[in-house]
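job 3f2a | input accepted
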Amino acid sequence: MNQENVFEKFFALGNSYWLTRFVILRLLGFVYAVAFLVAAQQLLPLIGEHGLTPANHFLASVQTQLGSRTAGVLRVPSLFWFGISDHGMVVFAWTGFALSLVVFAGYANAIILGILWAMYMSIVHIGQIWYGYGWEIQLLETGFLSIFLCPLLDGRPFPKCRPPILVFWLFRWLGFRIMVGAGLIKLRGDPCWRDLTCLYYHYETQPIPGPISRYLHFSPHWLLKFETAWNHFVELVVPWFSFGPRLARHVAGVLLVTFQIFLIISGNLSFLNYLTIIPFLACFDDSFLRHLLPRAIVRRAEHAAQQSQPSRINNAIAVVLSIMVICLSIPTVLNLVSGRQLMNYSFDPLDLVNTYGAFGTVGRERDEIIFEGTDDVLITDDTKWKEYEFKAKPGDLNRWPPFVAPYQPRIDWQIWFAAMASPADYPWTLHFVWKLLHNDRGTLSLLANNPFPDAPPHYIRARLYRYQFVPIGDKAWWKRERIGEWLPALDVNDPQFRRLLDAMDWLD
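job 3f2a | predicted structure (508 res):
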């Protein structure tokens, strides 16, 4: 058999991945839709012209630091370098949402997926702290690989173009790095991962607990230790089998997908776990998925496979893509074997091949910042304070923790981080207080309530509380004790407050 026939036989293996491609692209369309929906609803109050950290200020700062706009475009690639406005961002996000629904409905080609990737990259790169999560660059890497699953123009669910087998191997490589990176950062990080006690605390202290979290928190310690050991097994051992023969890959795929489903149930980790399922789907071929999908879809996949023709151009592109990923993977592999492993880091400006990780450190106690306002003109011992409630994070002791994932209330996440630090570390919180003192509609849209619907409060303060789950059976969900003051009472006429805001160009 000559060399050309060997390559053709290898690439023909793609005939057994028609259903795999179909499922991967549908799930990717769903994740993209959620991501763009979040952007459409939250971009303006977060990074709009009058947002908490305006993106136009950010781009101007980058240009100043790097010396030119061209340097800024190369370092922080984004379509918003060519024009940014509040109206433009809203139209941009809703356009991305609409295109995502097209993919979710079953119609995808390389052009549509390339546009979605470029659009979401543009948002991530101007998103600042609000988009500083590992799943943002993970979506960019996943979305980039998905471009090469499809023909250039044919957007049908089952086009004549064979699924390129090499791209599925690249998906498995992505899944491997995600899991092993997460496993190693745990073993190298918090000692509780090594003594199997991290889950004693995690369900209570995770960013946004869900309705099942309290029940998991009060599980027997032996069960929580077993879950931790199982976590290590799935993250550090199972991914290796995704490169194995068919049976090993199928078993690995089942374990990896079911692990992510459990994480979806146990908390609110945005769209991370939905997104992480995508590369694991590459462990399955049509011989597995045909037993799970509707017969009509299976028949369409079989018909497409019978009608397909090999494409040397597509195969050549897959080879070039694989070589590029291998080269870009060198720093990520070095990072994995390094004793100073970086977590959720990109080594290239386009976020094409990244390093991942999660929960290298687990908090032992849950501290929450509670913002309060009063309409009293003078503060006395008798002043009545009203609390602002966020949409997802703990506040009201009797409120059930909501199930919001895959949607992400981004300000709730950042308040979780801020509670572990000081206002100096999170200066945007001062702008947040300024907005509340003016009953800013955009900022209030990020919250669950407005205790002052008729007129803005005269003062806002922030107190720090320690929250704990109450035992199962109690009517309340949380109990809390006050630790101290996080921000003193501030009003719009406070001179130091105004100087700080003016220094940040936030006096609007």
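job 3f2a | The two ends are 73 Å apart (CA to CA).
job 3f2a | closed
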